[in-house]
Amino acid sequence: MLQGLTTAGIGKLESDLQLIELASRYGFDCVDLDAKSLVDRLGTEEAAALLQASNIQIGAIGLPVEWRGTDEQFLEGLEKLPSAAAAAAALGCTRCCTYILPSTDAPAAHFMAVATKRLRSCANILGAYGIRLGLEFVGPHHLRTQWKHPFIWTVQETLDWIDAIGEPNVGLLYDAYHWYTNEMSVSDIRQLRADQIVHVHINDAKDIPVQDVLDNDRQYPGEGVIDLAGFLRALNDIGYAGPVSQEILTAAQPTASPEELVIRSRTAFDRVFQAAGLIQQ
Amino acid sequence: MLQGLTTAGIGKLESDLQLIELASRYGFDCVDLDAKSLVDRLGTEEAAALLQASNIQIGAIGLPVEWRGTDEQFLEGLEKLPSAAAAAAALGCTRCCTYILPSTDAPAAHFMAVATKRLRSCANILGAYGIRLGLEFVGPHHLRTQWKHPFIWTVQETLDWIDAIGEPNVGLLYDAYHWYTNEMSVSDIRQLRADQIVHVHINDAKDIPVQDVLDNDRQYPGEGVIDLAGFLRALNDIGYAGPVSQEILTAAQPTASPEELVIRSRTAFDRVFQAAGLIQQ
Amino acid sequence: MLQGLTTAGIGKLESDLQLIELASRYGFDCVDLDAKSLVDRLGTEEAAALLQASNIQIGAIGLPVEWRGTDEQFLEGLEKLPSAAAAAAALGCTRCCTYILPSTDAPAAHFMAVATKRLRSCANILGAYGIRLGLEFVGPHHLRTQWKHPFIWTVQETLDWIDAIGEPNVGLLYDAYHWYTNEMSVSDIRQLRADQIVHVHINDAKDIPVQDVLDNDRQYPGEGVIDLAGFLRALNDIGYAGPVSQEILTAAQPTASPEELVIRSRTAFDRVFQAAGLIQQ
Amino acid sequence: MLQGLTTAGIGKLESDLQLIELASRYGFDCVDLDAKSLVDRLGTEEAAALLQASNIQIGAIGLPVEWRGTDEQFLEGLEKLPSAAAAAAALGCTRCCTYILPSTDAPAAHFMAVATKRLRSCANILGAYGIRLGLEFVGPHHLRTQWKHPFIWTVQETLDWIDAIGEPNVGLLYDAYHWYTNEMSVSDIRQLRADQIVHVHINDAKDIPVQDVLDNDRQYPGEGVIDLAGFLRALNDIGYAGPVSQEILTAAQPTASPEELVIRSRTAFDRVFQAAGLIQQ
Lengths: 281, 281, 281, 281
Fold this sequence. Notes:
Four copies of one chain form a homotetramer. By secondary structure, chain A is α/β, with parallel strands linked by helices. Chain A has one domain: Divalent-metal-dependent TIM barrel enzymes (TIM Barrel, Alpha-Beta Barrel). In chain A, 44% of the residues lie in helices and 15% in strands. Chain A has eleven helices and eleven strands. Chain A has helices at residues 16-25, 35-42, 44-54, 71-90, 108-128, 141-144, 155-165, 176-181, 186-190, 228-237, 258-275, and strands at residues 2-5, 30-31, 57-58, 61-62, 95-100, 103-104, 132-137, 149-150, 170-175, 197-202, 243-246. A nine-stranded parallel sheet of chain A has the order 3-2-1-11-10-9-7-5-4. In chain A, α2 (35-42) crosses α3 (44-54). Chain A is globular, with a radius of gyration of 18 Å. The model of chain A has no long low-confidence stretch (mean pLDDT 96). Chain A binds chain B through residues 104, 107-114, 116-117, 120, 149-152, 157, 160-161, 163-164, 166, and chain B through 104, 107-114, 116-117, 120, 149-152, 157, 160-161, 163-164, 166. Chains A, B, C, D: InterPro entries: IolE/XylAMocC-like, Xyl_isomerase-like_sf, Xyl_isomerase-like_TIM-brl.
C-alpha cells in the first residue's frame, strides 16, 4: 500500500508544489491533487520530472464534474473532464474520486437515475484515459438527514450502484471514517475483492457515540478510536496495494504550520501501520 | 396505429384462443397475451398459423420477471425470459412491457440502482431477440403514497430512467390513464419522438377530481373525461404506428360476457378514433 | 425532410458565414458545418441569432475525433469532443457524423474491437449533449480494396456494428452514393425504421458500371443515374424527417462561383424532390 | 491458487462423479465441469453436498452458447444460459469460459461486431448470477490460418476486445499453451492485474519449433518445454488466486485409465508448483 497525503489536515499550503515537497521529505509515496492545475503551472514534462525527482505519485485526482446539480452544471464540468483526465494520465495517475452525500433535496429515485447516467459518462471518459473512478460512500449519521430525502451511504448500496452504472472502471473509495460511522467490521472488508477498491482514505474519530460523530471533526490516524490497525490489515490481506491517503476534515483549519502537520501525519502513519504489522516500504 | 385488446376489460375469458377469436371477429388488429403460453399450448407453427388466419398480431407480452422483489425472485424470472422472448419473436411480437409502481417500501435510491441493473439485463436479453422493453409510468395519486417512499411516475422521470438503463431498446408504455392522472396535455405528447414509445394503452376516467381517480376504476374509451381524441391525434401526428391496446382495470370483473364486452370495446374504439379524425385501417 | 448543403460541391467558400448566407438565400433549410468554429467566431448568442435570422439549422457537425488512428490521436480528439458537442447543442444541432472506410491497413478484427470502444466513448459524450452519432457506410468498390484488409461497407454490417457499440444514440448516415454502390433498392430502405437514420446525404453517379464508380466523382442530384426519386420517397415513407444534405465529392474543386453552384444545387433539389412527389416546404 | 482438473487429459471418464471423486482423492481443489448437468443428475442440494464432502470446487463451467455461428444457434444457446448460470451459482461456481479461434471463415470485422454484441449479452446474463466470463486467446500458429481470415490471438487484442464488450465481469482465460505459442514472457504476465484473469489452464508443449506446435498435441505439465515455473510464479506474484486447471488436448484419447492419468497429473502439478517455489495448499 502507498502512504499518501491529501490537502485536508496539513494546514494552509502555499501550493501543490509545497504539498509534493513535504510529502517527499517525510517519506510519503503519493499525494492527491489536481493534475491539470499542476500541468498548467509547470507543463507536463516538468511536472512529471518533479514527481519523479520527489519520488511521489499522484494518488488520485478529484472528479471535476458537479454531477449532483443541474444539467448545465453537469455539462459544464463534463467539458473539462477529458483534459483533466489527460493531465492525470500524463502524470501516471490512474484514479479519480468523488463522494456521495447520504441525503439529497432532490426526489431520491429520480436523482439516482440521473446521477447513474451522469457518472456513467464520467466513467466512460475516464476509462478512455486508463483512469478508474472511485465512489466514496459517506457514513456520518447527521448527513443522512441533513437534506430532505435519504440517498445511499452503505458499502452494499454503493456496490449495487456501481453495478447500475455498469462501466468496468468504477469502484469504491473506502474511507476509514465512513467504515466506522457505518459501524462495519474488518470482516466486511475481507468480503471485498481488492479490485473493487479504487482508493482508500484514512483518519480517526473522537471517542463519542458513533451517531454523534461529525463529518468535519476528524482526528489524525491513531489519535482516535477507529480500529485502523484492523482496517489496514484487512485491506492488505485482500490484496489492496493502492494509496492510503490521509484526509482530516475539520471545521477550522489547523493553526500549526504545514510542516508541523506533515510531521504529525508521519508519526500517525508510522503508528497505525506498525500496529497493523505492515512492513513499511 | 393498431387497435388492440388486452384481457383487462373483456371479462372472464376461457383462454387466449377466445381472446384471439373475439379480437379477430370484431376487427381488432392485435392482442396482448403471453406468447410462451400460446406456443406451449399449440406449438409455434400452429400458433403462428392461428394468428395469421385471424389477422391478429401480438401487440406485446408482459415481462415475466419480478424485478421489484428479492434477488431470488429476479433471477427466477430471468431464467424464464429467453424462452418467453423466443416464443414472442417466433410469433412476430416485438414488444414486452412492465409497469413502474410510483411508490415503494424499499429505500428509493437504492431500489432505483438495483432496478436499473435488473432492467438492463432484461432489456439486453429481449434485445437479442429483437424485442423492445416498454416501461409504463403509473400516475394515479393514491398509488404515489401507497407505499413508504415515493418512486417515480412522470414521463420525464421515466425517460431519465430509460437513459440510466442505457440499452437502445427501452422506451415508454404510454397509457392514457397515466397521462391523464399526471395532468399532462397533448403538447407533452407532441414533444416526444415516436421511437421513444414502445406501446400505448387506452381507457378512460370518471368525472371526479383527478387526485381521487383510482387505478382500478377505469372506464371504456369515450365513456369518461379523458381527451382521447387529442391523445390519439398527437400520437398519430408524431408518427407512432404501433398498438393502442385497451386496458380497463376494475375492482371487480365485469359481469357481461366477453363477447358483449368486446362489442362494447369495438364501439368505444370507433368512437374515439373517429373523434380523433383517424381513418381506421 | 430538410433540404441541406454541405461544403462539398459549392466551390471555394470564404467562410461558414457565406455558406449560411447562400443556403438561406436559395431556400435551403440546413447546412452541415463546424458549430464550434462558428461559436468561436461569433459567440453563441450571435451565432444562434444569425441562424435564426437566416432560417437555417445546422444539419450535422462532423465528429472531431480521429478514431481510426493511434490511441494518442484518438485521445487528442476526444479532448475536443465535449466543447464541440456543447457548441452544437447550443445552436440546436442534434447530429454528429463520421464515415467508415471499407478497408483498413490494420488487422480488421482487432481494429473493429478498438473502434467499437472508441465510438462508444464518442457516442456517450455526444449523448450527454442530446446529440446522435451517425455512421456512414461507404460503398464504392475501389475503396474496398484500397487498404490491406476489408472492413465493412453494407447497411447490415453497419447496423450490427451499431448494436455492438451499444449506445442508444447511434444510427446510420445514409448516403445515396453508398446506397447505389452497394447496389441496394428502395425496398432495402423501406425495411428500416426512421429512427435508425441520423442523417442523409444526396448526390448522383455517372452512368458507368457500378464497380467503376469512384467515391470522388460525384454528380449533382438528378444529373446521374441514381434513382433519387425512389430514394427520397422511401425515406419519406418510413417517416424520416431529418436533413437531406448534398455532398458532391470531386477530385478537383469546381471552378464556378459558390453562388452559381448553390443555384445549380437548388435546381438539382427541385428536380429530384419533384420527381419524388414530395411537396417541398 | 487452486489446483484443478478438466476432463481433457484424464481419459475416458464414466461421469462427472468420477471426475470429482478422482480429483478429490488425489488432492486437487477444483474441477471444470457442466454444473447444470450435475444439478440435473443429483439435484442442487445433493450436488452441493457431494462437492463439499469431496472438498472440491467447480473451477469454471463452459459457456453453453455457440456465439460463432448463426443467429439461430446463438439464440438457442442463449436460452439455456440463465439456467446453466443458475446451476453454477447454486454450486458456488463464479467462472464461465469460452475460447476464441484465431481465424474465421466469416468476414473478420463484421464477425467481431456481431460477436461483441453476443458476448455482451452472455456476460450480462452471467453477471446477474455473479459469474465472470473468461475469454481464452488461442495461440497455435496453424490455427491462425486454418480458416479464411485472421481473427485475434494475442493478449492485447483480447484485452481490447474485453474493453469493447464493455461489461465489468469479462476477463482472460490464460492458458500456458497459448502464452507459449504467442511467444510471451513472464514479464508479459507481470504487467497484468490479477482481476483481469478469470481462469488459468496449464499444460506443456513438445520441444519442436514453436510455429509447428499443434493445439491438440499437448503434454502434461513439466513433461515439455514451457517455463511453467515462471508462468505460475508470475501469476502468483500479481495476486492471482483462482484455479489453475490442467487441460491436455490430444489427437487421440490417452489409453491409460483415468486413475493412472490423474496420478500422472498429480505428479505433474507437484513438479511444476515445486519448481515455482509455491507452497502447496
